[in-house]
Every structure is written in structure tokens, then in C-alpha cells.
Design goal:
It comes from Oncorhynchus mykiss (Rainbow trout). This protein folds into two domains: 108 residues, no CATH class; 78 residues, Immunoglobulin-like (Sandwich), CATH 2.60.40. By secondary structure, it is mostly beta strands. A hairpin with a 2-residue loop joins strand 4 and strand 5. Helix content is 4%, strand content 46%. It contains one helix and 13 strands. The strands form five sheets. Strands 2-3-7-6 form a four-stranded mixed beta sheet, with no helix packed on it. The chain is flat.
């Protein structure tokens, strides 16, 4: 019943990053999904660049201007790790209180290279050409101009044997690819 209620109700979820206190000339990068679904765990990634002291971060999730989830914390200088963002849902009909409660893992990263992998579509069929873009940036948000080795993995973590193509063109899947989950990845830079 809860699932059908949320399916019938179309909510527009907006993620607000309220405040991030950081030193001047410091920066941050936040990657979040454009759509949050009720009851589904989503990932939010926060990267803090060149932090010289601890950083206070506040995250707020709002629906129609009303805050439904709020979290804050202090990120120590040089910390790499994960934190949890809890999300609650509320329905104002005849019932009171929270009708769902969920949490997600938030990745906090203060240094290193950020790598973004983009595919041209979410699902590929046999003989379709696989196109990917790989972008990497340094902590000061400058592009990395080094060679990157990209690959596709099948279920179980093995390199995909059915790809054809060179370094600039990942290629197409053969006519009978192995079924399963595929992940794009990167090698050392």
C-alpha cells in the first residue's frame, strides 16, 4: 500500500547543500542523483578539495519547500571515508508520524583524483556500439592530461572478452554477449 501510494504521488525531490564552510580558494564537488525515489537507497558523493582545517557540511532534502531530511557533520582535514545520510518520509493524511525511514552512504573525499565515467545509454543490445567518456580532474579541478586505461567488467569481476575496438573506440558487443551486470572502470592514471 505504501509503495502504491508513493507511486501514484509524483513528488519532485530537490537536494540542497545548505552550507559548506571551507577556506578561501578551497572547493568542493558534490555528485547526487537528479531523482530520489521513496524507499530506495541513493548515493551522494562529497569531495572537499585542499581542505586545510575541518569543514562543516550541512545537507538538506526538501519536498515542496518542506525539509524532509537534514544532516550535518564535521569533516576533519585529510579524512577519506564514508558517512550516513538518513531520510524520513511523512504523510499528512489520517496517519501521523514517519511512514518510511531510510539511510544512504555518503562518500567524503578530501584529496586525490576524481574520475567520472559516462556512457551514452544505460542498456546495450548485441552489436550495439559502446561509447564512454572518461573525465578526471585534480583536487584543484584541473583536467588530468595522462593516459587512462578503461575497461568493462562482467559479473564476477572479469574483463569483458566480447568487446572489440581500440583505446579511442571501446567498440561494440558481439552478437552473443554473456548475460549479467557490466561495470565500467578505470586503471591507474
Amino acid at each position: 500500500m505504501l509503495r502504491s501510494y508513493w507511486t501514484a504521488l509524483s513528488l519532485s525531490w530537490t537536494l540542497f547543500i545548505c552550507r559548506s564552510y571551507a577556506q578561501e580558494r578551497q572547493g568542493y564537488l558534490i555528485a547526487a542523483p537528479s531523482v530520489f525515489r521513496a524507499g530506495v537507497e541513493e548515493a551522494l558523493s562529497v569531495t572537499i578539495f585542499n581542505a586545510v582545517e575541518e569543514t562543516h557540511v550541512q545537507v538538506q532534502l526538501s519536498v515542496k519547500g518542506e525539509t524532509v531530511a537534514y544532516s550535518h557533520g564535521t569533516v576533519p582535514r585529510g579524512l577519506r571515508g564514508q558517512a550516513h545520510l538518513k531520510v524520513w518520509g511523512n504523510r499528512h493524511i489520517t496517519e501521523r508520524g514517519y511512514i518510511f525511514h531510510n539511510y544512504t552512504t555518503v562518500t567524503v573525499d578530501s584529496k586525490g583524483t576524481a574520475v567520472f565515467i559516462q556512457t551514452d545509454k544505460p542498456v546495450y543490445k548485441p552489436k550495439h556500439k559502446v561509447l564512454i567518456n572518461v573525465y578526471s580532474v585534480t583536487p584543484d579541478l584541473r583536467p588530468v592530461n595522462d593516459k587512462i586505461e578503461a575497461y568493462v567488467l562482467v559479473s564476477g569481476g572479469r574483463d569483458h572478452p566480447d568487446l572489440e575496438g581500440g583505446p579511442q573506440d571501446i567498440g561494440g558487443l558481439v552478437s552473443q554477449p554473456q548475460a549479467g551486470d557490466y561495470r565500467a572502470g578505470k586503471g591507474s592514471i
